[in-house]
Every structure is written in C-alpha cells, then in structure tokens.
Amino acid sequence: MKLGSDPPMSIRPHRKSTMNPLTESFGLRCDGGDCTSSFVDSTTNDCERKLRHHHRQRMLYTNLHGFAGRTSAHGLGRFFAQQVPWLRLLWGCVVLGAVTGLTLHTYKQISLFRAYPVSSTTRLLTNQFTFPDVTFCDPLMKKFLTLNSDSLRTESREISDYFTASYMLGYGFASTPDSSGPHPKQEESAGRVKAIKIAYASFEHAVHSWPKFNMSAASARIYDMLIYCQYNQERCSEANFTVFYHRGYGNCFSFKADSRSIKSSGVEKGLVLILYSPSVDVKQSIDYYSEIVTTGLETGGLRVAVHQKDTIPYPGEYGINSPSGMQTVLALSQVQTNLADTPTKRCEARTNFQAFDHLLDTVQVYDRQLADCTTFEHLKSVQEKCGCTIEGLVKTHSGRRPDEDYCHDLLGAQDTKQLPKLLSEINQFFQRDLLVSNMSLIEKSGRLSLRTFSRLAYTDRLRVAELLSSKFPVIGRRLNRLKCALPHLRTGRKPSSCLNICNYTTYDFSVFQSRWPDPNFQIRGARIRLARIAAMLKSRIKEIDTNLLRLRAVNPAFDTNHALNHSIAYHGVNLSECLDDRLNKSLDRFDSDEHCQQVHSIIRQSFLQLRVYPKTLTVRQLYEERSYELVNLFSDLGGIMGLWIGVSVVTLCEFGEISLIVASYYVRLLIRRLALALGTRALLWAEEKPELNQKSQQNRLSKRQRERQKPQKADNQPFRQQRLGSSGRQKLFSNRDPNRYWQPRLRHGLDRSLNSVKAEVDNEEVSKRFSIIRLAL
C-alpha cells in the first residue's frame, strides 16, 4: 500500500469526522494540504486561515449585496441587480455621475456657508433721536491768540535759546537749493517754512519744562468765541463746552448737551450758536507763526464737525467750513448701524478707552470708533520703526501720564533736569567753536540770536544745523528719529487691520448756507435785526466781564481781557447807538445810522451763525444679520441629496451601518495579521530556547489558564494551541471558537448552519468525502 493511501473501507475504523465544518458546508478545500487522518487530527495554519478568509469575504459580499438591494438610494440596486453587462455599465455611469454632481453641489453650498453671507435690513425707530457732539475750531488762528508767540519766545533766556536752537535744527530737514535750478528762491522759502514748523512743533513741548507756558492757554478760549448759545429752545453757556486741543488748529470746543433727547424737529429746534472768529478780524494781531505757515488757500470762518457723543473729533478729516458772515444750517439724520460679527467679517464691541494729552496734561475717556484704531495703529507703527511717538493723544490703561518720547521734542524738553544743561552746552559751543564763532550768533545778553541766524546765507544755516547734530550725539539721534517719522506722516496710512465697531452711530447731514446778517440796510427789517444783534453783543460782553472777574478773584493771574472786548474797543464802536431805543421805526433809521452801518460791517466780517437741528426724530437703523445659517445649509443639503441620489437621513444611517461593517472587517483582518506576526516571532524564540520559554510561561500562567492548556476533546485543539499558545493572546480568544467568524448581524444564522453541519459529522458519508479529498490532494 502506498504511503498516504486510504485503507480499505472494510478495515477502516469508524470514527467521528474532524473536518472543519466550514469546509463541508461551503465546499472549500485547502490546496496542497494532507487530508489523511493526520490532516484531520492536526490541520495546518495556512489551511484554516484560508478557510476563514474566504468565509469572511463571502459574508462581507453578502452584506454589501443585501445593502444594495435594500437601500433607498437611487441606482445602487439597479447596478447590483442588473445581469446584462452593458446595462450594468450604464447604471454604473449613472450612479457615478449622480455622486459627482452631489459632491460638487454639496461643496458649493458648504463654501457658501463658510463665506458667512449677510443681509441688511432697515428699521425705523420713531422719536429715538440722540443729539450728537458738535465741535468747532478756528483754522486760521494757528494756535496763538491769547499769548503771542513773540512774547512767549522772549520771556526768558532759556525759552529764547530753546526756540532758537529748535529753529536752527529745523533747517536739517530743508533741502539744499540748486543755484542753477529755475526756482532757487522758492526752495529757500520752502526750507524756511519747514524750519519754522519744526521749531514750533518742538516749542509746544516746552510746557513740560516751563509750567507757565501752556499751548492751550496761548490759543483761544471759549469766552473769546461764544456769543450766543441756545439748545432745545433753552439757553446754554460755556459750561456745556469742553476743550479739545488740535495739533493744527489749536483749541477746539465741543458742545456736549446735558440732555440729548430733542422734543421736536425743525430748523428752530436743536442747537443755535452765534460765534466770533478772531482770525478774520482785522483788529486782531496777526501772529508771527501764522504769517509764516499760511498758504493763502485758507478760508475765513470756522471748521465744524458733527460726531457721535463722547468720541474724539476729527475736524480736519470730517468737518465742514462755516464761513464768517454766513448762516450755516446742518439738518441731521441719525443712522444706527449694527454689524454682524462673522468669522469672515469680524467686528469688535463698542467700548471706551483712556487717552492722555501731554499738552493739556489731562486724561479723558472716549468711546471707541474705527478712526481711533487706525490713528493709534499708525502711531504705533511709527513708534516701532523710528523709536518715537508722533504728537497727539496717547492711549493709557492706568489713567496716569505715560512716559513717551515724542518725535518733535528735539531738545528733550520733557527732561527738566537735562534740558538746562544741554542749552548751556549749545550756548558755549557757539561761543568757542571756531567754525561758528565768527557768525556772531550770541547776543550781548548771552542769548542765541534768532535775528542774526535768520540773516545768514541759506547754505550757512544748513551748515549750522549739520554742526549741531554732529557735535551733540543726543540731538543727532533725536533729529534722525524725526527724519524717520516725517515720511510716514506725509505718505499717509497703510491698509489697516482694525476691526469695525459692531454698533456705532453716524449722522448724515444736509448743509444750507445763507448770508447773515443782511448784506445791507436796504433790505426790509435789516435795522431791526441789527438792533437785536447789538443788544445780544452788549449783553454778552457784560456777562463775560462778570464771569472773568469772578475767575480772576480765584486766580489773580487769570487774564480778564477777551477777544470780543478787544475787537469792539479797537474798532471804536458803541453798541448802544444801535439798540432798539435808538431806532426810528417810522423812518427806519438809527440816530447814528452811519455808525450802525460800521457795526453791521464788523458783524458781517467776523461773526457767523451756526444751526444744528434734527431733520427728523426718526432714527434709521441698519441691521445686519447672517443670511445663511446652519439650518439653511442642512435644508439645502437635504434637497441636494434628494435631487441627485434620493438620500434621506434614514438612508444616511444605512450608509453608516454598512460603513461600520466594512470597517470592522478590515480592522479585524489587520488585528489577525498582527497577531499572526507576533505569534510567529514567539514560536521562533521558543524553538531557540524551549526549556526556558516553557518554564517562564508556566510561571506566568495562572491556575485557570494552565487548566485551559490541558488536552480537550475539541478537534481543533492542536491548531488552537499552536496558534494561540505562544502568541500571548489566550485571554482574548479563550472563550471563542476560532473556526467561527463573529459578525454581529449574521451570528445567529452562522451558529445555526454550523450546528447542522456538526450533526452530520457522524455520518459515514463524511468519511468517504475525506477520502476523496485526500486522494485529490
């Protein structure tokens, strides 16, 4: 008998079949294996692995095919059920096209959602008008009115030397004129204007060293400009105005109402101001600084800005001109804007901040607005690049005076201890240095001579500025910082990263202007109106004198003279001659008609009327909100999925279920491969050191685990011991049948099929089948 052949059927012992039930139930075979009695007793690992792998694949395919037949998604059932190849290909293209369209359409809708579009709606709020702040400045005054710059500069030797040295350094910014050029005189004049501006900008910092010198006190006061004030049909006074120092205009005054609610709208309501513009009065002295820096393009009158309450005014950027001799009417409409804060269009909440003004030496609280952020961001960029701060308001968080090093402070006026020493060294330099000692820049009194320096040749003035910056390193560093900062001021601001305010208020206004008072006496009622104005002026002068005397009683150094009184006195007019009791109404003439015509001319030249009123009490509210929310996205996605593949939420759950089944299949496959790899390594290690491995393993095993390693009656015990004994995973598979695929959905049916297969193991027909398989192998 050949080796491996079966014994005759008559002498073959009848025993229970040990063939894998999966082999018999599914008709699988292990190619290359030995199906003799030794095959039945100890099945190889490769054979068992192939059997399980084929079984799991068929189970997975059965689940996928069943899902395709049961799902409500369009096209999948047709594709799997179709037997004709070209129809199956056609349905495959249809399903693929539908999925592609669904993907593109879904991507478009998600992109729209991530763009966070917004929509604006307009609402009208009746009787909700809030009166704004009104700020006015005199742009022609150029900072000096109450105190003349000449008197300030010559008040003491230190102040005089400070200004003269600043003026000399100002020529460091002037360009060298080209004598062969077409306009050398114009270049020299432009250089002189630059030097004057630099000198006066540096001169403002002297307030830190000489307390009696205050730029706010040098400019106009509210007493010098306010003639008549009426708000909401009630009289108002200087107490309703606050001072805001503008770097170009000097003192500006902001009207802040006690009650911001207006009873009714109309041109007769709101704010009515009669203001005096000192800069256009011929009897007011013209300051030296104003003569130098004027361009001839300015207009007489005031600059008026309307802005949200408690915010920083920007009269130069957002103001309008109100010329003298005119009535300017501003009809306001309030607009409240509420922006939507989205990830693509961010905005910040409306808050307030503290700002320090080093010239007024005060800390004030302002409401935040977009213009403030861009301004402070620009100042911060200049500070980071040049190491100094541009003059203006500085944000502070502690409410204290911040320590800032300003760009225009060329001589360090903020350092009160070092400034006198530096001025003394500059004076000695002009006395002893051979390069400049022959220029006679020192007066007999020991002061620096501004007049002598101004008479020098233009090139000599440039050379003096260069010598000062080179001989004094401290001055040279400050000069270089200012040279770094000035180009940033001229080029303007770059694109900003500031966020808009989520809730802010703006005021749209219409401007109307007419001549005021009447152009001449030929107009009916002109003299009557002049009599009312003259009475108003006389009453105001008396009121100002009384208030100033009261202030002088508190502060003896307070100046009781004011611009209006000065103008009336220098013009030599008598307002009493133009009152009602001096008007002959039958003849429509004053007793001193020519004198009153002079008063009328003065008023037309230097006075103006300003009216600011609400055009309507209804507030227009622009409300912005997101137009595409998450619920809109889900609604559109539901419609898109229903349009392309007929999918609903239940269908998505079906897809999720089949995805979990497929994922579990591949995860289990990966785990088994890793376990097999780890078991193979353990077997190799055990073959090299069998005694040590067996002893150490017996020591690690518990009593219960050692009992499980005893021979069992199960036919697959050798396979189980060989695969799991050395892999260290007895605990994981100790209670499981390794021949069974644990698929949750098919577990019950699989158990039933395996039980039916095991019932037929005792049949003699099974033994014959083993013989046939063994012969085939």
UniProtKB/TrEMBL annotation:
UniProt similarity note: Belongs to the amiloride-sensitive sodium channel (TC 1.A.6) family.
Intracellular or extracellular location(s): Membrane
Domain of life: Eukaryota
Keywords: Ion channel, Ion transport, Membrane, Sodium, Sodium channel, Sodium transport, Transmembrane, Transmembrane helix, Transport
Record-level Gene Ontology MF annotations: ligand-gated sodium channel activity
Gene3D superfamilies recorded: Acid-sensing ion channels like domains, YojJ-like
Bilayer topology annotation: Multi-pass membrane protein
Polar residues composition bias: residue spans: 714-733
Organism: Macrostomum lignano
Lineage, highest ranks first: Eukaryota, Metazoa, Spiralia, Lophotrochozoa, Platyhelminthes
Family annotation (InterPro entries): ENaC
Name of the featured protein: Amiloride-sensitive sodium channel
Any one Gene Ontology cellular component term annotated for this protein: plasma membrane
Residue numbers spanned by region Disordered: 1-20, 695-740
